[in-house]
Specification:
The structure is a single chain. The chain has 21 helices and eight strands. It is α+β, with helices and mostly antiparallel strands. It folds into two domains: 410 residues, no CATH class; 83 residues, Immunoglobulin-like, CATH 2.60.40. The strands form two sheets. The chain has a five-stranded antiparallel β-sheet, with no helix packed on it. A hairpin with a 2-residue loop joins strand 5 and strand 6. Helix 9 packs antiparallel against helix 10 and helix 15 crosses helix 18. The radius of gyration is 26 Å and the shape is globular.
Amino acid sequence: MGFILKERASIVILFIISAIFVFDLFIHNGRPSTFDGPTHLANISQVYVGLSNGEFPVRWGGEFARYGWPAPQFAQQITSYLGALITFITNDIVMSYNLVVFIAAFFSSLLMYIFLRFYVHQMPALVGTIVFHFAPYRIMNVYIRGALPEFFASIFIITILIALYLIIKKEKVVGYYLLALSIAGLILTHLFMLVVASILFIFYGLYLLNENRNHLFFKCIALGLSIGLGIGLTAYYILPLFMEVKYLYYGGAGGHFVQGHFLTWQNYLTEQWYYFFQGDIDVRGHVHQSGIVESLILIFSLIYLTLQYVNKKSVNTFLLIVTIVGAIYIFFTTSLSSMFYQTPLGSIQHPWRMLTGFIIIPPLTLALLFDKLPKKYVLASFVIILIALGILRFPQLYGKNYLLENQTNYYNTFDNLHGTIMNTIWMGEVRDYPFQDTKIEIFEGDGTILDLNILNSSRSYKINSKSNAKVVDYTFYFPGWKTYIDSKETQIQFQDPQYRGVITYEIPPGQHHITSIFTNTKPRILGNILSMMSILAFAILVIIYPKIQQKFQFPLK
């Protein structure tokens, strides 16, 4: 509460600039044309339907890709669940999506400001945060890429930095809890961003450990435990993700690195926004750039550090580390780093995704430099930066080709919006499968279906069959689907030439009660158990640590 009162003017400014950032989304009906926006809208809708059916965690998307697909199991969790929960209030998927964008914009900026305040005064922190907020890559993620999870991931990247500061520098046990929750949050928001941001985490952590070597062994143990606990919290998601991806084309595709997506000096030293660019017609031009302001900040920082060294003055170690990390991120976006993407690092697919980590660097660098300015230059410098951002960035806060479409299109998608590579290995192209008016149909034999009840991940009905009958459930098979005839499990087929990848099964003559349900497999059960154990361990630690600390005098307080 004290922080809020002391910094309330800055917080109000951050709220206002966050509203400016997303303003264009709210003044238009429908959604802008983006690359990934429709996918994340669909993810929200699938989770919303699952939650509406009382499912948790939601693992199946009943109308995703025409016949259903486990989109909620593979999709980014935090943004999908947050958007779904908001939809219970808005009853509008697009509005919920836009509100998630605003939440990400505001809280990532607020957290960035809090982190900067650890090192600099109020005005430099505010200047750095504003530069961070209007970074070109953030604008692209909202208005061109529609990369909601990657945009949201900044929240947890920054809270991890804050947690490291609290654990190592301040020796506060709250940092331990924050780190575990933040690691979990980042994994559940965008797993690849944990890899991208690890460069920043490692260098910052080593810097802090060097600055405060007290209780070094204990701190390292605490860090390891908190990271492990954070990973454990996500087991319900990552265990099935890794163990069941083998059923998808993606799992057998080998490397996922996309060639030809490296950046050049032009992406760093020029700033040009395209309305059309090559094949980008429906969406705005998809050209990644660091931003000329950000590049100039790093160049000035390098000059400043060089002059300090030449003049034999004390070099700002933290500024040096931050500048080095910025150079490393730039390196990993260029073709010079191509050999590193032949390793598991290639799973991030596009080198320009390193910009998610890079966008932290120029604002932090600027804040550190700004804090050194004589007071008489502070206001003028602040105004110059605002004018530069106003000219370069404010005109880019807009979406293209807003589309107002029926909400049902987000629930029943025409294709696998995650890409054909995410189809199961026993499926064909989704677009080759016709939409069906009914979920259950007899395609061989004679019988009548009664009392059909279709839910997101289950269906039940009665059948009066005069002969042996074959039934098709227009659902793409995925491990976990089970069908019961009069409470006795029957064998499911999914390789019938007429219904490739679709659930079919045989029913004997007579009257029967049929139930099909998407159940948990062993990896899902194990993941659920590990997550529950991690939640329990977290709760126990919160409760008992104060007593342990008091008795054994542990350094974290």
